[in-house]
Amino acid sequence: MKSNSDTTLRCKRLAANALAPSYAREGDAGLDLYANESVCLEPGCYALVKTGWALALPAGFEAQVRPRSGLAFKHGVTVLNAPGTIDAGYRGELGVLLINHGTAPFQIQPGMRIAQLVVAPVQHVKIEIVTEIDQTARGTGGFGSTGV
Q1: Contact of 116 with 60, CB cutoff 8 Å
Q2: Least packed by Cβ within 10 Å: which of 19, 38, 47, 72?
């Protein structure tokens, strides 16, 4: 696998005023994604917000669109399908599906940071159909199985 220094995310600007994805600080895991349009999100509503960029992820990688904690904490605005997955073969415009869980309308403006993009390696597995699977101490304990 390539080291982080060998990995390049190729970005194509689709709109003249679109701000490029960027890391806010050295060492950050996620690139900030910026809105490229004005959208008013009413409480309980969602919208696909365009970024003005298309990406060419390196083979063997995917990108995850994740919420910004500040928008969620201060306004109740988050990524509806978090994390949204972008496959390496996708070449369309990067959009962020935002929802307003808050109680007041939220105005998105061009240039506003609306989400984070985390690029990660993908591991493919071989599928084997079996009639039994190994048992574990946890077994079938799912949602809430470890208590509150």
Answers
A1: no
A2: 38
